[in-house]
Write a structure and sequence with these properties.
This protein is an all-alpha fold. 84% of the residues lie in helices and 0% in strands. The chain has a single domain, classed as Winged helix-like DNA-binding domain superfamily/Winged helix DNA-binding domain (Arc Repressor Mutant, subunit A, Orthogonal Bundle), CATH 1.10.10.10. The longest helix has 29 residues. The chain is elongated and about 55 Å long.
């Protein structure tokens, strides 16, 4: 059966909206766990900042940023699965 392009596009948009909502919910849950992790995610993933830049903004070492980034990624992955 052939699905009309409009229907396929609408399904893709709904799936994208659902994904955005899931990511937002996961980030909100992460905020309750450790607000700094959310800052690291926002600066690293959304703003494209380097570990050193984030460290300078947050007043921590780049090693702390790496540790926070890894922890945040693991927690988000578990929340999104």
């Amino acid at each position: 059966m052939h699905v009309p392009l409009d229907a396929q596009l609408a399904d893709n948009l709904r799936a994208g909206e659902d994904e955005v909502i899931q990511v937002n919910d996961a980030i909100e849950a992460l905020k309750g766990e450790d607000p700094r992790l959310v800052q690291v995610v926002e600066m690293r993933y959304f703003a494209g900042m380097s570990e050193q830049e984030i460290a300078e903004v947050l007043g921590v070492t780049d090693r702390t940023v790496r540790r926070d980034w890894e922890k945040a990624r693991l927690l988000l992955a578990s929340l999104l699965s």
